[in-house]
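Folding Query — how this chain folds
Tokens — whole-number codes for backbone shape
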Amino acid sequence: MAMNATTPIRVVLVGGSGYAGFEALRWLRRHPAAQVVGVFGPEGELGPMNEFYPLLTGQCDLDQERFDIDAVASRGADLAMLCVPHKVAMAYVPKLRKIGLKVIDWSADYRLNSREVYENWYCEHTDADRFAEAVYGLPEYFADDIAKADLVANPGCYPTCTSLAAAPILEAGLIEPTGIVVNAVSGVSGAGRRPNLALHFPETNESFKPYGVGGHRHQPEMEQVLSTVSGQTVDLLFQPHLCPMDRGMLCSIYADPTCEATPEKLLAALTEAYADKPFVRVRPGGAVNTKHVAGTNFCDVAATMNKGKVKLFSVLDNLLKGASTQAIQNMNLMFGLDETAGLY
């Protein structure tokens, strides 16, 4: 269904008090063809959004209300954006779909296409029959499917950053699909807004550490999307790190080249893949920097070779291209708008 500025997309935001939800609200409020008609959240996080985030004073007069499906239904919305944790989303999605809303879910609950894999990494899934309905929301590769979808699984920030660098190189047959190492760094906002001793300022400032060292749950999501895009089974090792910056993400990816690989072909593969993709920028020479994408929906990618290895790099804003503005990019596609609407 195509929408325009005279018939706005009416959006309910579920989970507006988190960092990504806050960013979604900011960007949606100035979107030329969207209108936020309600913000909902859990019992312990209710009240004016401008009290959660004083930056919104004079810009947003909405309250975050307790999630109630009847209250949501009363808003006459077209779309629900779910900025909630895994397991919570799977409880909400069936209710939202039953009242006719399209849904963009930011949790992991519908990203994986295997119940067994999901439950190995997360928890019991109570709505796994809906896996077949969900479309993986990486616009650079699945735009046509997203445009027809009623339920979109917004990708994780690490899988987005990794996939946008590695997918064109795998598609071009320039690296081996096994033995790939993804060494990644995220800003502290990626862990969310809820207080946590490990994220307390004295614990994170002037510190740099790995986490999820026994295996991180984004790894199967990365393998799934890269296998789908490249048409071969991709196996990789993923290690995330926490960096003392507010926002941002960097992925350094190391892979074995095939006999076809040269630095020139790597650059050509990235350039060709993203020639008509407005939010991926190719940086020759590996010149990526988290400051160059902060506050934007861009992902910058680069590739080179050294000592018989292919090295790929990518950066994005974990709260935006890694979450909220990528969801808006998906919304634009779902409602027949130019995918760049409201994102520059």
In short: Residues 157-171 form the longest helix (15 residues). The first strand starts at residue 9 and ends at 14. The chain has two domains: 9-154+323-334, 158-316.
